Amino acid sequence: MQLDFFPSRTLTLYLAKLFVARIAAMLFVLVLVLMMLDLLSSSGEILAVPGNGQGELLTYAGLRIPQLISRFLPYSVLLATLITLVTLNQNSEVIAMKAAGLSAHQVLAPLLLTAGLVSLATFAFNERVVTRATETLKAWEAVDYGAIPDEERVRTNIYLNDDGNILTAAYLAGRGEAIAMRNVSWYRRNAEGMIIEQVDAERARYAGPGWRLEGITRFSVQNAVTDRPATLVVGEGLTPDQIDLAKIDPDAEPFWTLTTSIAEFERAGRQTDELRAKWWHKISGPLSAFLMPLLGAVAAFGLARSGQLFVRAVIGMALGFAYFVVDNAALAMGSFGGYPPFLAAWAPFFLFLLIGETVLIRTEE
Hints:
Keywords: Cell membrane, Membrane, Transmembrane, Transmembrane helix. By secondary structure, this protein is an alpha+beta fold. Helix content is 59%, strand content 15%.
């Protein structure tokens, strides 16, 4: 028995089913509560748009729920681990398994296998569902919850510099000369860097060269005069190629698409550390679910009647949440160059893998 990593087939299936049921229950509760709180804070903005109603609220929920599932699935695995192991301990099932000759690792093996499958499913879910939902939701937010844009290659909150002048767009879609912008602002500055003219426009399209604005409101700072010209061409130094590389949202791009985008940035001589860190984290992030049974394993062992079961559960929860704190901090450090991208994405995972193994071996093996 000690030479087999997994216990018997019956026991493996029993523990796996127990674990999956609790993961599903915890995920449902977390997503339901968080979605209700999110709707309370966002429903006012959505319903403020004329014509929006219950259908738009359901659309928002449908776009937001995949993001919540992706973000809180590892937390659900952690909480499910603690509940499962504490229940097994209280019912003396862990004692029975150890009396049958199972090691601590063998007791955890079905949970680790289940968590590994959850990690794989999370990666596929992120790439196929979450990225698309994120892209659509950000595009919808950029047009203030008006009509949902149906263009491809959507980016939001674009900032461009044209020889000191500034062009910003809340929403940008398309590629090459077919690029379309919405909610555009153009700030013309003098040689001293002072803004002398501000132009706000509803739309902008490529004029070859420059960008033709439509729905314009122009304000001249020098004489405080506002006018509304029919059209205006600005940013003649900004080419479609430059705008294509203006911004990449790694949360809205699938893994392989992001790989191509990073390569384009590198060919253009742009800084890619932040994108590289997010690229690596697309792999290491879902794997955090695999760590949770190991970090919460401390709750499985020790006599329930000793009065230390609650303390063990708290320690397991503290280890799990410490991982998420360190992971977020390392990713933030990698985003502005404090850590190399690979280290920022993978160091927390391997650090807590070693911590979990050390705690398990020193206390139980």
